[in-house]
Design brief:
Structural class: alpha+beta
Number of domains: 4
Protein name: Penicillin-binding protein
CATH superfamily of the largest domain: DD-peptidase/beta-lactamase superfamily
Subcellular location: Membrane
Oligomer: single chain
Family: Belongs to the transpeptidase family.
Keywords: Membrane
Pfam families: PASTA, PBP_dimer, Transpeptidase
CATH class of the largest domain: Alpha Beta
Number of strands: 34
Largest sheet: 7 strands, mixed
């Protein structure tokens, strides 16, 4: 026995010595197996980049959400009186089915499924249905006190403005990857186009833990930080976009059209300030996104109708073929075997070319084309960018077609029928009229910024596409466009904007049938308006088109279009601080240079001059000011003076959005702005000293729309003349 046990002990000693010396058991290294058992790796999720408007207002961002997890292994429970796993799968499935988009039977299958080797998993999840759970829903489920049901922090894409330029911005959503992980992926619009730039790179953390997952003492953590996606700043202005969305929703509800599109642009730069269409959808829920995934402003072609006459007029003036007081016979115009007619079919007898344009006479354009010459006319249409893409920084742009094969094609193109264009082409061409002949390329991306260091990766600068007309021609066209609104015979009288002189051209385009020919009847047209404002120095170009609205017997097609145009233009010009023409002269004060001076004395000085100083800080030496020195400031204006020290909040009551944005920028406080217009309330009282980083919510109310329809109208429904074969 002694020899037997001695031999076994000696064999065991040799074995232990061998393992210690080599670290190998059955051909496997113990160090590697120990590392696999105790070393853990956690993913550090990167945030998807934000999409913001030109002023830094959030359009899309990642926000906190929750992921639903069910612990199903009984080993998780150490105290039977306090169960930590799902004890009753039937009841748990029944309750959860009330809160997540999954059938009770499917939930039960997940809760009771086994691993491939027959073992029970420690925990399970519920796929897409169990992700992106809001804080409110998490609380509701938590109140059910279901054993084993826990939540992990997650991220979801959030669109705080609802239906807001939805076909432009698009949406992103969580998608399961091949390795079983989930990743936010852009599926439409800018979210898809710039998915690479917006997507960050996940980091990871390696650490050692015990079998229960607790960090071992003195163990080292190796961290590879996550890199967040880049932030994209758009040219959109949230306030102007909201004006547009609000007015379009109102008209869409009232007239139930088949579709609508609208664009607001800065003619000086080509920046798109607002863009929308109907039907639209909510990017958070995708509600309303059933049939059309296209951004109609750039991806759909239309027959432009009489808005095209703007560029026929510009061509006539530029080539010396515009004689406003010369007369022509209106009513009909025959070319070979075809006859075109004016929209009232009979015309107005012999009228001047100026009146012909104001009345939107098709025959006036036909006579102008005869004087211009077909080849010259088509060359100018190409100079205005028709027949080719604008080059806007969005994919999928349609080209449109200039029909030039037959003489009748060139005639109908002169008044906007037959040839096709995109709304964005019309806006680009109109920049030449508004911008003294210089045609600007439209764009929607202002800059792309690295979220880690705030450095600009890419900056879009305004680009001139050409100069199809001279400054003198552009000025003359603007004056004639204004006359379509002010003239007693003008077709655009409904587009008058109180306090501002505006101009533009109405359009009533026929809609082609799928099998050929056109629809007829006043509810079967595409009604539109291409306008600019103010007329003497245009700051805005606005294009609105409403397709097949349901009009009352006494209504005309320009009414829904005008309701959008006038509301958006008036509110936007006021927001941009464009002074109305009839505004009384106001007293102004020249701003001094106050930096480095004492705030107490400057405060008294400004008050004596009729200004309202706002001190940001405790007072003392002024380190920054707004507005800058030498600028002329209207009496009663707010003047912001930055000093060092603790900040006491002012009363924001009745402050404009712009003033709140200035205060937010200069103070650096976490102010969250809800709404547009003027401040209605603030979550933190005035005179409160701000110590922490808790958000300060400032709510604004939207200005009321100011639109009235004149009692008497001389406008006629502008229907495009029918093309009739000549007997």
């Amino acid at each position: 026995m002694l020899l037997l046990y001695g031999g076994l002990f000696f064999a065991l000693f040799i074995r232990i010595f061998f393992i210690q010396a080599t670290g190998v058991v059955d051909g496997q290294k113990l160090e590697v197996k120990a590392a696999a058992l105790y070393e853990k790796e956690a993913v550090l999720s990167a945030e998807r980049g934000k999409i913001l408007d030109r002023n830094g207002n959030i359009i899309a961002e990642d926000t906190l959400s929750y992921r639903l997890i069910a612990v199903v292994n009984p080993k998780a429970t150490t105290n039977p009186e306090d169960p930590k796993h799902v004890q009753d799968p039937d009841y748990t499935a029944k309750v959860l089915s009330k809160y997540i988009a999954m059938d009770e039977s499917e939930i039960y299958k997940i809760l009771t499924r086994k691993l491939s080797d027959g073992r029970q998993p420690y925990q399970v999840e519920f796929g897409v249905a169990g992700r992106s759970i809001s804080h409110e829903l998490m609380n509701e489920i938590d109140k059910e006190k279901l054993p084993g049901i826990i939540f992990a922090s997650d991220k979801k894409r959030y669109y705080p403005n609802g239906a807001f330029a939805s076909h432009l911005v698009g949406f992103a959503q969580k998608e399961e990857q091949e390795d079983g992980s989930y990743k936010t992926v852009g599926k439409m619009g800018l979210e898809s186009i710039y998915n690479k730039e917006l997507t960050g790179t996940d980091g990871k953390m390696k650490y050692e833990s015990d079998i229960f997952g607790y960090l071992l003492p003195n163990s080292e953590k190796m961290i590879q930080p996550a890199v967040d996606g880049s932030n994209i700043y758009l040219t959109l202005d949230k306030t102007i976009q909201n004006f547009l969305e609000e007015s379009m929703s109102k008209v869409y509800k009232q007239y139930s059209p088949e579709s609508m599109v609208a664009v607001v642009a800065n003619p000086k730069t080509g920046e798109i300030l607002a863009m929308s269409q109907r039907p639209t959808f909510d990017p958070d829920t995708r509600e309303g996104l059933e049939n059309n995934w296209l951004n109609d402003v750039i991806e759909d072609v239309i027959e432009p109708g009489s808005t095209m006459k703007t560029f026929t007029l510009a061509t006539a003036i530029e080539t010396g073929n515009w004689h406003p007081n010369a007369e022509f016979q209106s009513g009909s115009y025959t070319i070979l075997d075809r006859t075109i007619r004016d929209h009232n079919n009979v015309g107005w007898g012999r009228i001047s070319y100026l009146q012909g344009f104001q009345r939107s006479a098709n025959t006036a354009m036909a006579h102008l084309l005869q004087m211009i010459g077909d080849e010259t006319f088509i060359n100018y249409m190409k100079k205005f960018g028709f027949g080719e893409k604008t080059g806007i920084d969005l994919p999928g742009e349609a080209t449109g077609t200039l029909l030039t094969t037959y003489p009748i094609n060139r005639v109908t193109t002169s008044f906007g029928q037959g040839s096709t264009v995109t709304p964005i082409q019309l806006v680009q061409a109109m920049t030449a009229v508004a911008n003294d002949g210089k045609m600007m390329q439209p764009y929607v991306i202002d800059r792309i910024v690295d979220s880690e260091n705030e450095k600009t990766i890419k900056k879009h600068e305004p680009k001139t596409k050409g100069q199809p007309i001279s400054a003198a021609t552009a000025k003359q066209v603007r004056e004639i466009l204004a006359s379509t609104i002010t003239s007693e015979v003008g077709t655009a009288q409904r587009f008058k904007v109180e306090g501002y002189e505006v101009g533009g051209k109405t359009g009533t385009a026929q809609i082609a049938k799928p099998g050929g020919g056109y629809y007829y009847g006043k509810n079967n047209y595409l009604y539109s308006f291409l306008g600019l404002a103010p007329i003497d120095d245009p700051q805005l170009i606005v294009y609105v088109a409403v397709k097949r609205p349901k009009l009352a017997p006494t209504e005309v097609g320009s009414e829904p279009v005008a309701a959008i145009f006038t509301s958006v233009v008036q509110n936007s010009l006021k927001y941009l601080n464009i002074k109305p023409e009839d505004a009384a002269k106001v007293q102004t004060v020249a701003m001094g240079d106050y930096i480095g001076k004492n705030s107490d004395s400057i405060q008294v000085e400004l008050q004596n001059e009729g200004l309202t100083p706002i001190i940001i800080g405790e007072g003392g030496t002024i380190t920054d000011q707004y507005p800058d020195k030498n600028l002329a400031i209207t009496k009663g204006s707010l003047i912001f003076l930055k000093t060092d020290g603790e900040i006491s909040l002012p009363s924001f009551e009745n402050w404009s959005l712009r003033n709140v944005l200035v205060y937010k920028m200069m103070s650096g406080l976490p102010i969250e702005i809800v709404g547009d217009g003027y401040v209605e309330s603030q979550s933190v009282s005035a005179n409160t000293v701000v110590y922490d980083s808790s958000p300060i919510v400032v709510k604004l109310k939207t200005p009321k729309e100011m639109y009235t329809v004149p009692e008497k109208e001389t406008e006629e429904t502008e229907e495009e003349g029918e093309i009739i074969p000549q007997d």
